[in-house]
Amino acid sequence: MKLLRSFFSLLGITLLLAGCSSSTPDTTSPTVTISQPRNNTTLNSNQVAIQGSAQDNTQVARITYQLNGGQEQQVPITPGQNVSFQFQVTLQQGQNTIAVHAYDQANNKGSATIQITYDPTAVHTLSGAVVSEYAGGPVAGSTLKLYKNGNLVGTTLSGADGSFSFGTLAPGTYRLEAQKPGMAGSVLEGIRVPEMASVTLIQRQAFDANASTTPPTLLITQDGTQPLEGGTFTNAIPFRVQVDTSKDYVRPMRLIYVALGRTPGATFITNSATWTRQAFSNVEDTGNRTLSGANVAGFGSTSGEAVYVEVVAYDFNLNRSHYLIPITFKNTSPNQNNTVSAPTGVAATAITLGEAVGFYSVKSPTTLKVPVAKGMMGELTLDPQAAPEGSNLYVEVRWCYTATAVPFAFDIERSTDGTNWNRVGTVGGARSSSCDTNNPLNRPFFFRDASPDLTPGQTYYYRVVARGANQAPSAPSATTPLPPFFAPLLSPADESVGVSRTPDFVIGHPQLTIGADGAAYNLVLWDTLTGDSVAWQSLAGYNLLVEFGTPDNGIPSGEALVYGFHPPSNRVVFFTDTAGIIDPARPNRVPVDTTQGTVSIPYNFDGLAQLPALQALRSYAWQLFVAYAYKHNPQENRISAYSIQTWPSSTSFIRITRPGTQVFDFTTGQ
User: Fold this and answer.
1) Is the same domain home to 397 and 472?
2) At which of 434, 461, 479 does a domain end?
């Protein structure tokens, strides 16, 4: 990304560095985390697998467990600073206490304990939601059918909010199907109950409502013959995905997507600087392939980690198949033994799109000029696959890591209170000597969180944990996603006649309504007879920034600033400053109405129109070429959220930006 010059005074950012020291002799106990099953889980089977990890500043030498206070039992591991463990226990009926102990070479002991209840009569619940896109709107009234071993065990309808629930379920592996008139079919195969208590099912609008809505059936193996499920693999995972052409689906296939994750849906992030997935377009057979290198970076351990290979496939009618294949993955990367430092410069930025993006369709362009902090402009990358499955909301987390010891992985964690953290993703570890301390959008490492539970108006905290022999968390960064932004065209109205030859172009400015601190517009006008551009109504193509007063943007309530870069002047010009914050003369060349929420952009207000006035009795059209809102984070001195209504198309310079963009025609008078 390119960093542009400051517009006006920029607050400084101080980077605080902290040192650390080690002590001898070693008195630090290992830490133990039990990841599965969850504490206070009730099972109706007496067999349960216990999974987790242990870390130590020197080395985890051995791990033991106790069942109900009994004798300690050894768990086989490969000693190291960061180890994973897995073992099976047989529960007694009623409540069971399972304690896992880790010992280092100095015999320091760390422990974790969970309680599991074994009730042979217990039943479980599977709940979730049906959404039209991964972070998108609910699908109400979809018929959901749940199968176990090919047998139908339950049927229900999704509610108004897309929610559903199945009760009285026995432990096992399930298949969930969704059907609704006008919608494509969707299936989620490989749901583990009770481990997966909640799932999200994605159901898209059918491309052709009269075509088949049966999702494609997939055959997923190592090489066309050997099974993939349940296998143990080291450093690489062979796979082959084939569409069962003997079953119903709509040809041709649009996409087959394969990636590695720890929980269902966790693989649905776009490529990061250190992690990639594999995608195949217009094929029914991927051939023999391998997940390796950047595909598996940050996953696994020397002793093995339980993970999922996730496969998603779309046929031509947008029927969707999603398969979860559990495997054990071993990773022998030496970076697991490095003592790592905390990442720096973590910045979380929420991006809301006015319209969902389908991840297999063509997207353009990829960048927007945006304010990144007070007085500073940069380029925001709109990754076409950042919000996969057509999502309209994601959070981009960027950070730096300049320390010498390279982490094995970066774990991205999220919190709603800044205290309790949940991991939302992992990417491979790396280091970079570059770290832009001014522009947070220009930092080298990134992860994009498109979790379906992201909600506009909710503040989220993110941190990045560097993981090697130890774990080193960064300082947190906060963002509050904005709702979708839509600035309506008001005047000249569509199909209006007798319009002035020097009209005022009035648009709605709903900045305050959605909780934003400002918005940017790029308005274009053209002659409908010739198709020629008549005028960039905003600064020869540069954005016009409009900010109504809020507590976070430093402008008094009821006042406004309108400004932008003026090419002939080669500087930022303030066209409106109702409070005299920057210009004591209080210019009002672009009038605003903060009560009604409108902005009036006079024809040729910037002196850059090609004609001094429009031609008489001529038809013209106008539209917003670019429109987005943004929100300040004063604690971090940066913009932390954008809500983007429209952005230009690289294939059509004028007129068409995105589907649904308003284009108003009018005819001038005498």
Assistant:
1) yes
2) 479
> What phi, psi does 633 have (nearest 5°)?
-120, 90
The first and second tokens of residue 322, run together, are 């999603």
Say whether pLDDT at 654 is over 60: no
Within this chain, do residues 493 and 475 fall inside the same structural domain, yes or no?
Answer: no
Element housing 90 (H / E): strand 80-90
The tokens for 40 are 């206070």
pLDDT tens, residue by residue, 360-398: 343 444 678 899 998 888 888 876 444 444 457 889 999
Task: State the Cα–Cα distance between residues 144 and 166, nearest whole angstrom.
Answer: 10
pTM: 0.75
Dihedral of the CA atoms 426, 429, 432, 436 (nearest 10)? 20
| 393-403 tens-digit pLDDT | 889 999 999 99
Query: What's the CA angle centered on 232, arms 229 and 233, to 5 degrees?
Result: 110
Residues 418 and 498 in one domain: no
At 83, list the tokens. 């180890």
Looking from the CA of 515 toward its CB, the CA atoms found within 13 Å total: 14
Whether 473 and 493 map to the same domain: the answer is no
Higher pLDDT, 609 or 324: 324
Q: Which of 88, 118, 148 is the last residue of a domain?
A: 118
- Tell me, what's the pLDDT at 535? 62
Residue 186 domain flag: no
Q: How far is CA 549 from the centre of its chain?
A: 30
Q: Give the separation between CA 644 and CA 346, rounded to whole angstroms.
A: 23
Return the sign of the alpha-carbon dihedral for residues 443, 447, 451, 453: negative
In DSSP terms, 115 is beta-bridged to 97
Q: What is the pairing mode between strands 344-353 and 320-330? A: unpaired
* Pair 653, 504 in one domain: yes
As given in the structure block, the two tokens for residue 172 are 């096992």
The CATH number linked to 57 is: 2.60.40.650
11-64 residue pLDDT tens:
333 322 333 444 578 999 999 999 888 888 888 889 999 999 999 999 999 999
Whether residue 110 contacts residue 29, with contact meaning beta carbons closer than 8 Å, is answered with yes
Q: Which two structure tokens, joined as six digits, stand for 586?
A: 């209080």
The C-alpha atoms of residue 464 and residue 409 are separated, in whole angstroms, by: 10
Of 189, 52, 193, residue with least CA distance to 113: 52
- Determine which of 76-80, 121-125, 244-248, 572-576 has the lowest per-residue pLDDT on average: 121-125
